[in-house]
Specification:
Layout: H1 2-13, H2 26-35
Amino acid sequence: MYALGASLFISATGWRHADYPDEASREDQRRAIVDKPHRPSSTH
């Protein structure tokens, strides 16, 4: 379910839900998704 929501978020905004570098390992990506603050879905 998370993958679907993340895909829709990226499609709508052009941003990942959590910030991490493009070259990040899969482990670093997962850690960023779990541990880092998520980006807001709007700028209001």
